[in-house]
Amino acid sequence: MDREQMIAQHNAIKSNLRTLTDAVEAYSSTFEKNISSDDLEAVGQISQCQVAMVENVKQMQSAIYGPLNMVMLHYEECLRSSSVRTLLEMGVFDALPVDGSGMSAPELAKKLGVDENLLVRLMRVVVPTFFEEPQPEVYTHTANSKVYLDGPLRANFKMMFDEICVASTRMPDFFKKNGYLNPISRSNNPYTFAHDTHGLSMFEFLLQHPDRFNNFNDAMQARSSQTSLPYSLFPFKSKFGEVDTTNETVLLVDVGSGIGQATLAIREACAEIKGKMVMQDQKQVIDGIATPLPPGVEAMAHDFFKPQPVQGALFYYIHRCLHDWPDSDCLVILQHLAAAMSPNVSRLLISEIE
User: Fold this and answer.
1) Which residues are identified as catalytic?
2) Minimum mean pLDDT among 74-88, 94-108, 216-230, 318-332: which range?
């Protein structure tokens, strides 16, 4: 790096620091204003500020690393994710004490029945991001490692690594083979290509592998319950309150609900509002709901490529579903919802990943 590049990097770091400081101050102000409220809208405002901070941190990291190290960062992230996945399978996350006490590499290797040298090499990749090493080759949990003890969050990481990353690594081959055309098929896309699904869509393929399908459902639970809540950005409570409802009023139909994390959160936040909420997903998903549903929430097996059976609901809510399907399929899904909506009564809410 020459002198001019060093000066440019220095100025970029200072500029990004000012921007990041402003974002932190905005977050702090919003946090103090809303933290005492349990309202979903308040949570959403805090979440929006957190997203802004994350984007600013990324820009700061880019400024500090510089172009060359940003290229090398891909290498680090690839190795780190692979090491975490291997250590999960090895059993390290579960074997380490959660009380903060450490365990030496020989003890850990003996307990797990694994090669000590391999264990040390893998741990070297993930310390200090995930684990701490207070003494040479003695390891303890951190908050970033303990989070993998949560079942749904662990499932989310496994799904990302085992399903999505495999497809991502084959994307160059897929697009080269297919003339760099935008994929519009359920059964011919990077996922089906990488996993060799033999003409099946991703979801049809997962249904043939129950362990992977169950892990996928657990992962979706984590994305709704543990990450920033997209449904907290809409004022459900105040909007429901604008309508004179009864116990039979269908307040919400959660289309592609999974096991109902969003529905349950909205119902809890709007407990005093009369009416019911309906969560819909494939039969295999609905049948997998293990806990009884609270009053005012119903579960319904439904294929959203077929006509919507619940007519005239106040809100039809579809979140993190449409990105899984080509445009032609999305039109079918939305047309069925439009046909079920009552004029001047029903509204459609779409919440998608960026």
Assistant:
1) 323
2) 216-230
